[in-house]
## 1
Amino acid sequence: MLGLTASRAVARHAVLQRLPTFASPLRSLNFPRLLIHRAPPCRAFCATAVLGNAAKVAKVAGEAAATGAASTKTIAGQLVTAGYETQVGLWLLGTSAMLYSMVAIGGYTRLSGSGLSMTDWKIQGRRLPWGEAEWVKEFEEYKLFPEYQLLNKGMMDLSDFKRIYFVEWFHRMWGRSVGVLFAVPLAYFSFRRVVKTPLAIRLGALFALGMSQGFIGWWMVKSGLENPETHTPTLGPNQRPRVSPYRLAAHWSAALTLYIGTVYTALSLLRPSPSVLNPTAQAISAAKRLRLGALPVTALVILTLFSGPFVAGNDAGHAFNTWPKMNYDWVPQEWSTAVAAPLARWRLFFEDTAVVQFNHRSLAYTSVASALALFAYSTTLPLSPAARSAVYLLPCGVALQTCLGIATLLLYVPIELGVAHQAGGVGVLTTLAYLLHTLRTPMVVL
């Protein structure tokens, strides 16, 4: 018996001596000596195989982690010189915040009746009137135009005029300040060759669009200094002086394009690459499916936002201040009349008070329903944590905007709520832009 035990020990020793590459990993991992020296040869081989596979997995995981870390800057590396991603991204994010505030200030300017107080425009801007004589001169200029003659004649004094003039002046100068704070860093980064060609082209286009906003804004204001029936003939004579809703929509659309373009570019520099946000094949598949549904939802929200200027430009928010019905009707008769002959009566869709408000309501309902349906669909998908967090912002933003819209209507469009509702719409669009950016997927899956 003792001889048999000794022979087995010799055999085990021989096996371990012949397989040093298997034994050494076990010793390096401080496994119990019993497992190493007393296990039968077959168990030693099994343990060795497991450890070998584990080493291979660890190696692959390490390489994947290194690849992921490198790919974090892959997208940004195509846009800026390495090391400047955060600087350029924060600059663009700050510009986005200023553009957002510009939208809110524009809403306040319109709702406070200040937008037509300045009757000329200079590209370089101008200082505020200095002294009583200069203020009187500006006031006398304002008196020559329809807004004063039809609405404010005999009801406005110089102090009232100073208030609305300052609001419009501040709106214009804030826009110029945004332009300077965009142009100067862009020139600096371009001179330092920080910005690469693809990003330079994109930022150049955004800067050109921002410059054009000054001209579009004056083109819009100029329409309010003319007889209103020139721009909205279906409303007949003796209309309330206001800017053309068509030009207001053009100004609004350019502002949204400029804002979203800046936000999306900032996100591309500050956030990880798609391979990091959606790291697995399962997450990539889910992101693609959700993105396919998010695109039409975004289009609906944009269309809803585009209908807003026609409500604002026609003062349609000051009529039918009931909800959910429009006075006593679910569908106003004016809308049925317009739909009966859409080609002949196409202007009614953009100028008639009842029609434009019903269109805006209908688009808002559709946007809310589609956004909530998209969120419900997302709960069935194996999304990555980043995508899951992004999609959870959507119902929150939509719910807040819905409440703001209803309250604004029922309370007859108070200035504060009107501004909040306009800013809330941009907030919902920002949420969708953030979601779409998160749902980007790698071009190649390894």
## 2
Amino acid sequence: MAFLLLLPYMDISTLDFQQARIKQVLFKSRLRSVLYGVREAEDSLFVLRENPLGQWLYTVVKPKYSEFAEVRAIEQTLQAMLDTGRDLVRQYQRDQIEQARAGLEKIEQYAAQIETLLLKLEQHTRTAV
């Protein structure tokens, strides 16, 4: 019975990291849809503590793993990605549509950095358990 109780704890960690990756894809999808005129920009999308990935960072990761350098790096990189996303929306709103869409490449670069950091953090948390 103890094994059954331990198994969900291990799955939660893996599931949490999968959900973080989904949240990042969701952010990129929402930003892209704004820059292609499908939806309006919501301010909360660019606020670290209101962004789904930021919420995950503050509610799931930081309480348990704030001592890891990757956590701070994810937070800083995510903030830079959100700031860049906000800037791209402002460009779009000023009718600099092509420049704004071209800026999605920078978002992809931040996302790749975050993915690398998530992988490192996931490895650290597995060895810390």
## 3
Amino acid sequence: MEIFNAMRTQQPPSSTQGVGNTHQSVSQTHKTSMQTTKEQVNETEQKADTEKLKKQLQEITDKLNKEMNPLKTSIRFGFDDSVEELYISVIDTSSNQEIRKIPSEEAMRLAAKMRELVGMIFDKKG
């Protein structure tokens, strides 16, 4: 009896275990590729949403400026793509010169640089 027990413990693993491991690795590879595909789809959707939002903001600023024209005000609205923010300009109507911009040009440049630095520090690809 002991001989039979010793033979059982020394038998090589059955071929079905190898198939099971192969199935698991294929399944894992499939899951990984599905996750990558989902991430790409989400990124594409976010870009499309961002572009749609930018277009809507530009339309809103145009509408606001058209509404302000009949009032002969010295306020104009704008949208800066580099910072992705709205701004307000106070204009001297007699000379058509910009008196003040809110937020200031310096603040907008600073915000753009900050976004660039954050992008470099927290790079999604790295």
## 4
Amino acid sequence: MLLSILIIFLNLTITNPFDLYQTNLIQSEKSLVKRKLIVFSGSDWCKNCIRFKQEVLSNEVFTSFARDNIEIVTVDFPQRKKLSKEEIVRNEALAEKYNREGEFPRLVLLSEDGSDSKIIPYTSQGPEEFVMQLKNQLAR
């Protein structure tokens, strides 16, 4: 009888291992949240956009940094390439919120929760300098 009471008491006080797993999973998912860099581009007509993609976005220095630190969201406004209606609607909504001026390329770094944004200027700097700019902004 005493053993039964002790077992019941222990079962009530021991945390369910599944609950611990769920808590750890939720915490690890939160730590995986990356800040987003929105890249507004005119991929088939904007010379600076094309240069930015070739010299920075495609460079290993940038891609290895981005892989671990930020998520890239490309918002493209091509003149010749056709986009799906869904993509057009998404791009226009993002432009309405973050690029009303219609500047290309425009690079917007969002906070983790998306409540704050910072424009990162592109002045034809190389990938190393651009990564340093991003690191400085991420540290703030």
